[in-house]
Amino acid sequence: MQTPPESHPDSVVLLSPDEIAQAGEHLQGLHTGLSTAILGQNNLLESVIICLLARGHMLLEGLPGLGKTELVKALASLLGLSFRRVQFTPDLLPGDIIGGPILEDRDGRRELVFHKGPVFANLLLADEINRATPKTQSALLEAMQERCVTVMGETHQLPLPFFVLATQNPIELEGTYPLPEAQLDRFTFKITVNRVSSDTLHDIISSRRDGCPPQLDEVVDAQSLQQLFDWTDRVHLPHAVADYIARLVDSTHADSEHSDDTVQKFVRFGASPRAAIALAATARGAALLAGKPNAGFQEVQRVAPSVLGHRLILDYAARLEGWTPLTMAEHVVDRIPQVSRDVPEDVQI
Question: What global pTM score does this model have?
Fold first, then answer.
């Protein structure tokens, strides 16, 4: 997650109706552009916009040919951001992503000069990320968390904003490697891209004989994008909603007082504090997308499965019982009450 400027909660000016309306115009234009490129995937497109507003990274999982790569390319075009694509393969090396020192002649002397890799872009598409080895995958850890890379003891800042949108095929397919837990935790969202309906297939083959989506023009410039980030930061998060987020994340741990028998039996490791930060940020983004000045329980429940589903590590017996990390996350959301007994009933949401 990109860290917003520090400010005292009491000093934040709440969003005005005019600002919410302006944000809605920008977001509607972005959604319309994405829906022109990717047909029949409205929930997916909304999730992408929410993750963007939260300044987070997204992992898209699905079978080949479902439009994951085209979605990322369309987003870069609509935002006018610098865009680089890396095709992850088993022989890809960390230096192929972040760059490295190259020996050059400088004023009659030979010096090691750092040459930037494709990670130095606003939007990096890590295509089929799970086809590279864990060593290569881990090259993105520092970039995704701290927006910089360190090579030979020297730190290089990445351009801002910086987003990683990665695609991966289901892990059961041949030639894939599981992503390290530390890297999964750095993805704000993990979204499963499902197949489209027969009606959508009809639209695709009728309007795109060559299979290519239309060319898209920029609809949100750099200044407007920064304004959207600022407005997202100013979406109000009530105390009761923050308490709900904290209890959700805490209840994913087997040793928590909020966890139930199912979690205690099947969950080995729960979600990290990074998950709570991601929940708060994406709930604000979901509220702004819905035209609301404050984030409520509904927004948290909207984003929670995408935030928590890839962060839970289950016991081997969970699969035998039919549990997946995503269904476990949905179970936690279903059973945790919205309001704790420790929160006054007169708290306004």
Answer: 0.86
